[in-house]
Design goal:
Helices cover about 80% and strands about 0% of the residues. It is an all-alpha fold and about 100 residues long. The termini are far apart.
Length: about 100
């Protein structure tokens, strides 16, 4: 079993840089949407932090639980209602009652 553990650890360390690169790509894309984007050094540090934290903390079971908790049909309905209410509020120029 020690050999399997060593191989698993080796594969894991080989995948981490690819994961960091993928996260960096997403953060760069998000950053590019702002009028005043953050400097690349900050984007890189944020991406590294997010990638490292998720790599250590999120397991396959934890990911399934997170998705179930945050993307249930009930949560999606709540988000849909909120988005509709915000759009209605914006369309009135911010006048009238804001429903949440």
């Amino acid at each position: 079993m020690l050999g399997l553990e060593r191989d698993s650890g080796l594969l894991g360390t080989q995948r981490l840089p690819r994961w960091r690169k993928a996260v960096l790509g997403h953060i760069e894309a998000l950053n590019g949407q702002f009028q005043r984007p953050l400097p690349y050094s900050e984007v890189k540090a944020i991406a590294k932090s997010i990638a490292t934290w998720t790599w250590k903390k999120i397991t396959p079971q934890g990911l399934r639980e997170l998705i179930e908790r945050t993307h249930s049909p009930e949560k999606q309905r709540e988000r849909g209602k909120l988005a509709t209410n915000q759009a209605e509020f914006a369309n009135t120029g911010g006048k009238g009652q804001r429903r949440i």
